[in-house]
Amino acid sequence: MELDCTTGGVSAIVNDWYSLVKSRLTPKRFKHVEGVVYTAKLLAKQFGVDENQAMIAAWLHDIYRELDVETLTRLALEVDVTVPTTAPVTWHGPIAAKRLPLDFAVFDQEIQDAIASHTLGHPQMSAVAQVLYVADAIEPGRSYAGVDELRLAAQKSLPYAVACVADSAILFLVKQHLPICWETVEMRNQLWLGIDETN
């Protein structure tokens, strides 16, 4: 079935995104993206978020994930994106977000912001961005320790799910003695301050 994904100047069908993304990623990465699209659609419907925006963001969130550091650096310079000197694995989101209008005619700011923040999170994430952040962490192909608990958290509320995913990411980085970006910590702190766990 073809689904019209018209939003923010974008007019495409799911099959078009499918073919485009599949042509740019390895089979393993593409399977992950399919899982994120599936999960993002479910979460968007569950929490009253725009499904088209969530699905387009999900299709394109890892479009530059498999590029090498040299290529990512060049692309970042072309669109004037400042990326941290550490953790190149986090660069693909912000770079893709800036290049969406140029490379894919995606002008929707919420989609751009969602893709930019899908790895690290951000204190000012929209509902679309929160859906993508959670979907990326809990899609059916994920099998790391604790993912089932995160899937249960996603049944409670969207902010609660985002906070739990952030906690999981922070704990992983702590155990690996890796730096934790301020965006993740500030987002996590703000969310937990506003969440009533008694409900």
From TrEMBL:
- Occurrences of domain HD/PDEase (ranges): 25-150
Question: Which leading EC class covers this enzyme?
Answer: hydrolase
Pfam families tied to this protein: HD (PF01966)
GO terms (molecular function) for this protein are:
bis(5'-nucleosyl)-tetraphosphatase (symmetrical) activity; metal ion binding; nucleotide binding
Do the record's keywords include Transmembrane helix?
no
Q: Which UniProt keywords apply?
A: Hydrolase, Iron, Metal-binding, Nucleotide-binding
Name the chemical reaction catalysed here.
P(1),P(4)-bis(5'-adenosyl) tetraphosphate + H2O = 2 ADP + 2 H(+)
Respond yes or no to whether keyword Iron is given for this record: yes
> What's its EC?
3.6.1.41
Q: Which NCBIfam families match?
A: bis(5'-nucleosyl)-tetraphosphatase (symmetrical) YqeK (TIGR00488)
- Recorded protein name is bis(5'-nucleosyl)-tetraphosphatase (symmetrical)
Give the organism the record lists: Sulfoacidibacillus ferrooxidans
Record lineage: Bacteria, Bacillati, Bacillota, Bacilli, Bacillales
